[in-house]
Design goal:
TATA-Binding Protein; 6-stranded antiparallel beta sheet
Length: 493
């Protein structure tokens, strides 16, 4: 007996806070990658910018280089020249190359910190920032229109032989680019020991190479390619980085520096192996730029980032702008306001003097520079510098919980939360009445404030079947009480 399989309709591809991501061999297929690339190609062609070319890069995930080649073949079929990375590189290297070359756009095959089963498709604008909502709306419409149609492509090898593909290595130019705004030689000369955890990702080898040849001692974990990422999500937060924290806690290191799977997110640990959470890193980088570099340009932070940004802004006379979650909002706002820095809760930081896009490598180097400057001022070890920082910026007890759901059940959960919290949100948190409730501009969650500035945020994901609960409080006890309240809201208990 024969079985006739039902032919599925073309997947609806929607770009979330940071590109389109899906499970490999389920929705993330060569066919759908070609559809995404066709959308980019048509966007570039309609603007008459084929001659500017498109930069294509990829990370260390399963088959990323092959998905990247498939995307390039579609661009080439539209007579768009392609600059193709010689190997897996950090996502921000695509942004760097787009800016340096004056390219029309950039494509990166990466799912960032998602589970190892996923891959993704990111688009960079000509400014190097993540493609904003206006560009993405055009791309999504083009992709929706090409579902079920034959996507043109030109064989990669043939196009390369014809001189239409240029292989690029971003490292030499990037090192010189960093030297414009950061004294790498001073960092190399420091008498300190640091541990770098790239989480088997595309950032492996970059920090150690940039700091090689001096007095500083750099030890790097997990440099080899491992698409399984050691069985953890390659996001530099606990418990994923507990191995690295344990090594630092064992002694012999002054600082730990962390990267995510595509190296566009940064993290750190002090000399005791205590994790410096992402909101603290946001505050530390603002403090560094204002206190040690004397900068006073605006700062842009996502709605789920720290209240310390506002307090530091008031102290130093810096305007602080808040956006929706994702660098597709933060990057354009940075450019609009001439911001010196943009930061999101997940550990992504961009800098006006560098790139209006997240760069975990550069952010980690700035953190190293900050702590060395604090050392010179007598605030050492790193834990002492952190204590001084909080005496200025105020307390920040932060925690995030990701609550996962089956993909089939997730739409109903999302609908229940977004409709229910509008009318039946919490009236008190940690013994304090809720003073203000804010619907996120992206209509995907709610933020609840209490009088002392503590807050709870419940936000549904646009890229994964999960709901995130965020809390920043003025004490550990209040943080735990608010997290528990948020979990009960999400689980419907």
């Amino acid at each position: 007996m024969s079985i006739i399989a039902e032919v599925p309709a073309p997947a609806r591809i929607v770009f979330g806070t940071d590109g389109w991501r899906a499970r490999v061999a389920d929705e993330f297929t060569f066919e759908n990658v070609r559809r995404c690339a066709d959308g980019v190609a048509r966007y570039v062609t309609e603007r008459g910018e084929q001659a500017r070319g498109v930069v294509v890069a990829y990370d260390r995930r399963f088959a990323s280089e092959h998905f990247a080649a498939a995307a390039a073949e579609v661009l080439l079929a539209h007579d768009i020249q392609v600059a193709f990375a010689v190997e897996a590189v950090p996502t921000q290297m695509c942004s760097y190359e787009v800016v340096q070359r004056g390219a029309a756009a950039g494509i990166v095959i990466t799912a960032s910190h998602n589970p190892w089963t996923d891959n993704g498709f990111k688009v960079k604008s000509p400014t190097g920032s993540a493609a904003g909502p206006e560009i993405l709306a055009v791309l999504e419409a083009a992709i929706a229109a090409n579902g079920g149609t034959a996507i043109p492509r030109r064989p990669f090898a043939e196009a390369e032989a014809a001189g239409l593909v240029e292989r690029f290595d971003p490292y030499p130019g990037y090192e010189q680019f960093v030297r414009r705004t950061l004294d790498l030689d001073a960092l190399k000369a420091a008498d300190v020991s640091i541990l770098v955890e790239p989480m088997w990702g595309a950032g492996a080898g970059w920090i150690s190479r940039l700091l090689a040849g001096g007095r500083i001692r750099v030890t790097e974990l997990h440099r080899e390619r491992n698409p399984y990422f050691g069985g953890v999500n390659p996001e530099p937060i606990r418990p994923n980085i507990d191995e690295a924290l344990g090594i630092v806690a064992g002694g012999g290191y002054d600082l730990g520096l962390l990267l995510d799977g595509d190296a566009d997110r940064a993290g750190a640990a002090d000399e005791r192996g205590v994790f410096i959470h992402q909101l603290e890193v946001t505050g530390l980088l603002i403090y560094y730029l204002a206190e040690h570099r004397g900068l006073r340009q605006p700062v842009v932070v996502s709605v789920n980032n720290t209240s310390m940004a506002g307090r530091l802004g008031a102290r130093y006379g810096i305007d602080v702008h808040e956006t929706s979650v994702g660098f597709k909002y933060i990057g354009p706002k940075m450019i609009e306001t001439g911001a010196m820095m943009g930061g999101e809760e997940s550990g992504g930081f961009g800098f006006g003097m560098h790139l209006p896009e997240r760069d975990g490598i550069y952010a980690d180097l700035l953190l190293l520079d900050l702590f060395l400057r604090e050392k010179a001022a007598g605030r050492w070890p790193v834990s002492a510098a952190l204590s001084h920082f909080h005496s200025i910026a105020g307390p920040s007890f932060y925690r995030r919980v990701d609550i996962h759901f089956d993909r089939s059940a997730y739409p109903a959960v999302k609908r229940r939360l977004l409709e229910g919290l509008r009318e039946h949100g919490p009236t008190e948190l940690a013994g304090q009445p809720v003073s203000r409730t804010v619907l996120l501009e992206t209509n995907d969650g709610y933020k609840f404030f209490v009088a002392d500035g503590s807050w709870l945020l419940v936000r549904t994901s646009g890229t994964e079947p999960l709901v995130r609960v965020y809390v920043e409080a003025t004490s550990e006890e209040a943080r735990e009480a608010m997290i528990a309240a948020g979990e009960r809201l999400v689980r419907g208990t």
